[in-house]
């Protein structure tokens, strides 16, 4: 049992280091439910606007975060969400921040964009 607990501790410390390194290097971090605890443990919550599962919001406040009760919150490169119920909005935010807004459908005005581009010929734009 002690080994298992020690192994968990190492995994937790690795996750905290991962979050801290990502935040400090400007890379995106997305965390849902109890996940924002890693933001607290990584000491990168202070001054940030975050959300989480209700039972850990006091910990976020104590770490200096502004805590809000919203589906999804993005502050800089950190995106947080409250619960699995908010997963659709959370995923949408991550996709948008990674790839921009959704691209238009492949079919426009009854024509396939790929076919329209190919039929224009090399070097010609339609």
From TrEMBL:
Chain residue ranges for the region called Disordered: 95-126
InterPro entries (UniProt xref): C56_PfpI-like (IPR006286), Class_I_gatase-like (IPR029062), DJ-1/PfpI (IPR002818)
Coiled coil location: none
Pfam families given in the database record: DJ-1_PfpI
Stretches assigned to the DJ-1/PfpI domain: 14-96
Family note: Belongs to the peptidase C56 family.
PANTHER family: DJ-1 PROTEIN, PROTEINASE
Entry protein name: DJ-1/PfpI domain-containing protein
Organism: Pseudonocardia hydrocarbonoxydans
């Amino acid at each position: 049992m002690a080994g298992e607990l020690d192994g968990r501790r190492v995994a937790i410390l690795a996750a905290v280091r991962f979050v801290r390194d990502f935040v400090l290097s400007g890379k995106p971090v997305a965390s849902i439910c109890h996940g924002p605890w890693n933001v607290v443990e990584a000491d990168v919550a202070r001054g940030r606007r975050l959300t989480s599962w209700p039972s850990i919001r006091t910990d976020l406040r104590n770490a200096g975060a502004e805590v809000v009760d919203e589906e999804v919150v993005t502050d800089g490169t950190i995106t947080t969400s409250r619960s699995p119920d908010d997963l659709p909005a959370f995923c949408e935010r991550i996709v948008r921040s990674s790839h921009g807004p959704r691209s238009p459908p492949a079919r426009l005005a009854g024509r396939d964009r790929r076919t329209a581009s190919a039929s224009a010929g090399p070097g010609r734009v339609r």
